[in-house]
């Protein structure tokens, strides 16, 4: 099978591991810088081009950076037009990157999450703060990864000032209930093909409320309960992702989902758990391609 990994850099841990896992299972693999791709958009012979040649893959594994979502997902979409299987579809990546759309999809599916508010007018800031239970609260930019653009506000007055300042420069934000019982920890479940294959507990560094490993957090393996595994799988499905990192908090109300990530890093969770996540992703791609080939033979 010919697999394309859409990534800016072949030396990144996640990209390297995916390539190693796919090659170990006998596949031909090419890492493609999606920003160097260009597209021939036609009904007769749609193509994705790189350096003057057409790219020919059975499947692609998108590793699209948050700052290049628009162009990256356009490339994924073009592969979809060509009939190439993506382990995460372009529309699902876009949904995951838009935090507002994500929480709306989760809420529609009855998946529990911290109370979340969104408003346009600065005249509604006070009511918005009240709606999520007041300070302390979390303010999040709608697009951001690795904890960037996430702030903990500890007073109603500061919350009103910060939210009003963001709105005056037309920055869209979410306002979210702060779960103080989390004590700086959260949980990530790695979902592949609808199943949780690895999970870790992340603990924030001293003086930091964000548990992201890129911000100095630490990680350890953890066993999830059946309800947590179910919620993680449902959250990935609600956004439409075949491969997802689902972040949640453990609370007396049960697991509360805080984010669904479309390009979860593999280094932290493989290092913490010892699980070969990269090979699980490759096996998922194999199963989907195999199922599609069987379907086509049945149609003949």
Structural account:
The chain is of the alpha+beta class. The protein has three domains: 2-87, Rossmann fold; 96-110 and 183-280, ATP-grasp fold, B domain (D-amino Acid Aminotransferase, Chain A, domain 1, 2-Layer Sandwich), CATH 3.30.470; 116-178, ATP-grasp fold, A domain (Dna Ligase, domain 1, 2-Layer Sandwich), CATH 3.30.1490.20. Helices cover 36% and strands 26% of the residues. It contains nine helices and 16 strands. It has helices at residues 13-24, 69-81, 90-97, 99-108, 125-131, 156-168, 226-239, 267-273, 277-299; strands at residues 2-6, 28-32, 38-40, 47-50, 53-54, 59-62, 85-86, 116-117, 137-141, 150-153, 173-177, 185-192, 195-203, 218-221, 243-251, 254-261. Strands 14-13-12-15-16 form a five-stranded antiparallel sheet, sandwiched between helices. Strand 4 (47-50) and strand 5 (53-54) form a beta hairpin. Helix 1 packs across helix 9 and helix 2 (69-81) runs antiparallel to helix 3. The radius of gyration is 20 Å and the shape is globular.
């Amino acid at each position: 099978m010919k697999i394309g990994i859409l990534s800016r850099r072949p030396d990144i841990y996640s990209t390297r591991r995916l390539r190693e896992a796919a090659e170990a299972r006998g596949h031909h693999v090419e890492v493609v810088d999606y920003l160097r791709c260009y597209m021939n958009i036609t009904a007769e012979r749609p193509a994705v081009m790189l350096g003057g040649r057409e790219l020919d893959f059975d499947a692609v594994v998108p590793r699209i950076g948050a700052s290049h979502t628009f162009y990256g997902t356009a490339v994924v979409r073009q592969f979809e037009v060509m009939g190439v299987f993506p382990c995460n579809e372009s529309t699902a990546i876009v949904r995951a990157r838009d935090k507002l759309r994500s929480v709306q999809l989760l809420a529609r599916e009855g998946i529990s999450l911290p109370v979340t508010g969104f408003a346009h007018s600065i005249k509604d800031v006070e009511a918005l703060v009240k709606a999520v239970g007041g300070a302390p609260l979390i303010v999040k930019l709608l697009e951001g990864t690795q904890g960037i653009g996430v702030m903990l506000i500890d007073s109603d007055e500061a919350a009103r000032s910060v939210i009003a300042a963001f709105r005056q420069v037309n920055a869209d934000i979410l306002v979210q209930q702060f779960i103080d019982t989390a004590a700086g920890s959260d949980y990530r479940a790695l979902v592949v093909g609808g199943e949780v294959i690895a999970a870790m507990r992340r603990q924030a560094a001293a003086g930091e409320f964000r548990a992201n490993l890129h911000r100095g957090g630490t990680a350890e393996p953890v066993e999830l309960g059946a309800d947590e595994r179910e919620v993680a799988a449902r959250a990935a499905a609600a956004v439409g992702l075949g491969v997802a990192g689902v972040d949640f908090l453990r609370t007396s109300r049960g697991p509360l989902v805080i984010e669904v990530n479309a390009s979860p890093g593999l280094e932290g969770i493989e290092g913490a758990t010892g699980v070969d996540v990269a090979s699980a992703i490759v096996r998922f791609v194999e199963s989907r391609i195999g199922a599609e080939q069987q379907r086509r033979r049945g149609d003949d």
